[in-house]
Amino acid sequence: MADDALRAARLEIERWRASGFRDFAGARFDFRVPLREPLLNAVLERYVLPRVPALRTITLHVGEQNRLDVTVETAKVRWLPPISIPFDIEPDLRLTPDVTARLHIVGSGVLATLSPLLRFITLPPGVRLVDSVVEIDITRLLQPADAATLVAWLRNGRITTTGGTLWLDLRLALDHDTVS
């Protein structure tokens, strides 16, 4: 009985999706999503490490006040100790032309001096280094149909951190011109 209800709900949701969510035009959604360190590190291990052969390990530590520390170990030069890269997160997501998060490399020491060399490391699709800023194209991390929907519906996005948790605040709007 429960399986039948679940199947019926899935079919209804797929019908809404196929119709471009026309029945929901005018809806507004505010989401606050906690992304905790273990989940973020599991995502990095599963999706980033296989795409960046120059890295042996990558670990993220979420600090306070929009600070991230990323520790990496290179696979190419095994004698090199792990390197910790501190980042400040730009709180507001950039919404045009795609949804982009920006992380600024912090500091003026050796790491900041060497950061231009990071552009020679093959980064995963949708991630690029511009000067001392890592830009993550969130749209490229989604399925094409879902990405188009997110970009059309997203009105505001912010990232904040507390110790161990990255908070993603999103405001979505299904306006008449954004549903098909």
Description:
This protein is of the alpha+beta class and 180 residues long. It has helices at residues 2-18, 37-48, 110-114, 144-153; strands at residues 27-36, 55-62, 67-74, 83-89, 100-105, 127-130, 133-137, 154-162, 165-174. The chain has 4 helices and 9 strands; from the N terminus they run αβαββββαββαββ. The relative contact order is 0.19. The mean pLDDT is 83. A hairpin with an 8-residue loop joins strand 3 (67-74) and strand 4 (83-89).
Brief synopsis:
This protein is an alpha+beta fold and 180 residues long.
Overall shape: it is globular
Uncertain segments are none
Radius of gyration equals 19 Å
Biggest sheet layout: 6 strands, antiparallel
Distance from N terminus to C terminus (CA atoms, Å) equals 34 Å
Query: How many DSSP E strands?
Result: 9
| Helix/strand structural class | alpha+beta
Order of helices and strands: HEHEEEEHEEHEE
Strand arrangement across the biggest beta sheet:
2-3-4-5-7-6
| Percent helix | 10-25%
What count of helical segments does DSSP give? 4
**What fraction of the residues are assigned to beta strands by DSSP?**
35-45%
- Mean of residue pLDDT? 83
